[in-house]
Amino acid sequence: MGIHSGRSGPQSKTLGCIRTTDEATKFLLDLNQTDPLRTITVK
């Protein structure tokens, strides 16, 4: 599973990835540098 931004934002269809905003993707990338993500809960 991947997390990325792009296309028309969170409303764009994906092939199993989580699409979010550029701002949220940068936040997760920065956070992962100091506190690696181990789980993701999708609601």
Notes on the protein architecture:
The protein has 43 residues and is of the alpha+beta class. It has one domain. The protein contains one helix and two strands; from the N terminus they run ββα. The protein has a two-stranded parallel sheet. The longest helix has 13 residues, at 22-34. The two termini are 15 Å apart. The mean pLDDT is 82.
Architecture blueprint of SSEs:
Layout (H helix, E strand, L loop, with lengths): L2 E2 L13 E2 L2 H13 L9
Parallel strand pairs: 1-2
Short key terms for the protein model shown above:
43 residues, alpha+beta, two-stranded parallel sheet, 1 helix
Rounded to an integer in angstroms, the radius of gyration calculated over CA atoms is: 11 Å
- Give a short account of the largest sheet: 2 strands, parallel
Query: Multimeric state of these chains?
Result: single chain
- Counting DSSP H or I runs of 4 or more residues, the number of helices is 1
Q: What's the β-strand tally? A: 2
Average of the residue pLDDT scores: 82
What share of the residues does DSSP label as strand, in percent? Answer: 5-15%
Would you tell me the structural class of the helices and strands?
A: alpha+beta
In total, how many domains does the architecture comprise? 1
Helix content: 25-40%
Low-confidence stretches: none
Distance between the termini: 15 Å
Strand order of the largest sheet: 1-2
Provide the succession of SSEs.
EEH
